[in-house]
Structure formats: C-alpha cells, structure tokens
Specification:
Layout (H helix, E strand, L loop, with lengths): L2 H10 L9 E9 L5 E8 L5 H13 L9 E4 L3 E3 L6 E3 L1 H11 L5 H14 L6 E15 L5 E22 L3 E5 L4 E5 L3 E3 L4 E5 L1 E3 L2 E3 L3 E5 L7 H8 L7 H16 L5 H19 L6 E2 L1 H10 L10 H7 L34 E2 L8 E5 L4 E5 L6 E6 L2 E6 L5 E3 L2 E3 L2
Antiparallel strand pairs: 1-2, 1-6, 3-14, 4-5, 6-7, 7-10, 7-11, 8-9, 11-14, 12-13, 15-16, 17-18, 19-20, 21-22
Length: 408
C-alpha cells in the first residue's frame, strides 16, 4: 500500500461532510470495567455540522502518521479447509465483512465486534469504539494523474474504525454568557484523538484489497499485537521502535567489542541509500536475513564475525517463553506465546526506514551525549592520541557552550 493510496483516502476526511462519502457511523462507549455503557448508530449527514467535523477529525487521525511506523499493512490469516478445496476467511474477517454488508444496521453484528474489541483491547480507562461506513466513487485518472470525475472505475466500500480514549475534563471556573458571570463548570467527558484503529479493506493501487488491513497505532513501541491478532485476525510485524532496537542489538552482537565507528556509519549510509532508491517508487524496502548479511559484508564485516549471524537473526523473531521453574519467575504468571508456531521465515524482516536514526545521530557514553546531523557524519572520527582513545570532531563553524561563543 503506497503513501499516495493512504493520502487519497485520508483526503476524504478533509472534505466537507456532504462530500466525504460517510453515510453512517456507529459507536460504543466502554468504561474502565469493560462494560458497554451506551451504543449508537447514526446517519452521518443528519448530525449537527459541528459534530460531523469533530468525527471527521477523529477518523482522519486514524489515517495519519508514517507508513510502517504508525500505519502498518497487515495480512489476515487464512483458514484452511479440511477438504483441501481452498482457504477461507477467518472469523475475524467475516465479522468485518458483515459490518460492511449490513451497513452498520445489524445490532448483533455490531455487538459481536464490540465484544471482541472489549475482550482483547487492554486499556484501564474509558474509551470509545467508533465505526464509519463509507463508499468512495474512485475517479479515473488521466495519463498525467488528473482526476476524471465522470469516469469512475469502482466504488470502494470500506470500514474505518477509531478507538479513542475518553477523559474527564478538569473542573474550574468558566464564563456563562447568559448570566454574564463566572461559575464553577461541571466536569464532563471528552473524546480524545485515537490510540488505535484500522481501515478495511485496504486501498491498494486505487482499489479495494480484501486481503489487507491498514492498521493504525499512535504508539510505535507497543502496537498492541494481541489486539490485532484477536480482533483483526492478523499478525503484526515487530513494532517500528522494536525493529530499531533489535537491529541495533544484532549489529552490536555481530561486531562485538571491537566494533568501530566507521563500520557503524557505513551501515547507516547503506540503509539510507536503500531507502532513498525506493522513495520515488513509494515502496517500503524490506530487509530479509540475506539482505542484512550482504549489507554487513559490503560494509567490511568479516566472515568470522558473521559465523553466528543466522542464529542471532532468527532469535530476534522467536517468541521466548519464560521458564516457570526458574528462580526469578517463581510465583509469577508466565506469558503465553501468541503464536503456536515460530514466525515464518518470509515474515522475518526489517523495514529499512525503521532502522535509520532521525535527523540526528547520537554518540554517547556515561559522561556525554553528542548529536550530529545524519548528513554530516564525516565530521566524526575516532583516534588514539597520546595513548588515549579520543572522539575527534572537525569544526567548521563557530562553537558555543550554553549559547556562549568560544574560540579554538
């Protein structure tokens, strides 16, 4: 799913409500005790205008963020038939399709979905489950990318879900225009921007793809894999932050104690080039085991250091079960693997863009932290001077300490 596909659907939620294509929304307010407080289904266009714009904002946020970090394409599991006549949809996907086909009007279908979310969405406070049922008349495109409004190619029928925390407002003094006086305001409940959500089916190459879900997670560290597995019938990849940490661990273990700055910088440069090459094609370059091995080899890592590379790489994608008999786990509940089998080899991948630092490269030890622009790493060098290990930084412009210019 390309960023342009995501942008095209997100644009629908930036239009005025009459043109957005949403014709019905449903919701369920859940309290901290996992109880359904209230459920509702409304014709979108009959809502007050201000409310419609608020809903559009919540749904639009569910399509925001960075692809492969906040917006993660998922492939639902397929259920094998006993008669070997082919695969079929999982129960989770059947439920999502039923929501679309019934136009959010079947209470039993809605309640089945809500109950599945409530059971598996781990959150201790109040939250709102929001569903939007939308039809998008996909316009044709000219050779130079212009829309042909009268040449629709298909109607993209889809479901967008947003799960939003509901927080109490703070009590305080407020102005009452009617009485022209200040009074104590009664605390209420306000819906905040979504934590998680999804688009089904995904919009791929400007067409519906029933074999893909676009999953949203505000948090790039904990993307709630258990929730995605139980409610969407899909296994999530390693979270973006987890991919970066795992790759750093892999590189550290492979290089060992004598890993040098130049090798680390060469690896970062290689990753940056891979991402740059695919950026114009709007593709997310993924790295399998052999891809990472080639990068390390090209960056000067010798075969001796790569001897255990395969085992280290596979270990990153293996669910480690704690030993219940171990002393440190005595009396504690042990985690149960989400997956009865190891992650398939084809799913043991890194997304190259998730492995890069931001705009700054960080160099640190126990006594200092230095941040340098990632496109100026050539200014860094390690040397041994008078028998001491030194980090040398070439200075081109003026230097200041706490805003005070200093001379060199």
């Amino acid at each position: 799913m390309k960023p342009s596909d995501i942008s095209e659907i997100r644009h629908l939620y930036q239009l005025d409500p009459e043109r957005s294509g949403i014709h019905r929304i449903s919701g369920c307010y859940v309290n901290g005790e996992k109880t359904r407080v209230v459920e509702f289904t409304e014709s979108f266009l009959t809502l007050p205008e201000e409310e419609r714009f608020k809903y559009l904002e919540l749904f639009r946020k569910t399509l925001s963020g960075t692809k492969d970090k906040n917006l993660i394409p998922l492939h639902p599991h397929r259920v094998h038939r006993d008669d070997h006549s082919g695969d079929m949809d999982s129960e989770e996907i059947k439920n999502l399709k039923a929501l679309i086909e019934t136009d959010l009007l079947d209470p039993e279908v809605l309640r089945s979905f809500y109950d599945r979310v409530i059971e598996h969405f781990q959150y201790i406070d109040n939250y709102l489950i929001l569903l939007a049922r939308q039809n998008y008349d996909v316009p044709g495109k000219t050779a130079d990318g212009l829309d042909l409004e009268d040449a629709s190619e298909e109607v993209y029928s889809h479901l967008l879900c947003a799960i939003c925390p509901v927080k109490p407002t703070k009590p305080g003094l407020g102005y009452d225009p009617g009485e022209k006086a200040f009074h104590n305001l009664t605390p209420g409940q306000i819906v905040e921007l979504p934590m998680n959500g999804f688009l089904y089916p995904a919009f791929v190459e400007r067409s519906a793809d029933p074999d893909m879900i676009l999953y949203y997670s505000k948090d790039t560290v904990d993307i709630r894999p258990d929730f995605a597995d139980a409610v969407l019938g899909s296994r999530t990849p390693l979270a973006a932050a987890g991919q970066k940490d795992s790759f750093s661990s892999l590189l550290s273990d492979t290089l060992g104690e004598d890993g040098d700055l130049s090798t680390v910088l060469r690896v970062q440069d290689s990753l940056r080039e891979i991402v740059k090459e695919k950026k114009e094609e709007q593709e997310s370059p993924v790295l399998k085991k052999e891809d990472v091995r080639v990068i390390l080899t090209d960056c000067g890592v010798n075969e001796e250091k790569l001897a255990d590379f395969d085992d280290r790489f596979d270990a990153l994608f293996t669910v480690q079960e704690p030993d219940p008999d171990a002393e440190e786990n005595e009396g504690k509940e042990t985690a149960v693997s989400r997956y009865p089998e190891p992650i398939p080899v084809e799913e043991r991948i890194f997304v190259a863009s998730n492995l890069l630092p931001g705009r700054k490269l960080e160099v640190k030890n126990a006594d200092f932290t230095i941040r340098i622009n990632t496109d100026r790493t050539e200014l860094l060098e390690t040397r041994v001077i008078d028998g001491k290990k030194c980090l040398v930084i070439e200075l081109e412009d003026g230097v200041s300490v706490n805003g005070i210019p200093i001379g060199i």
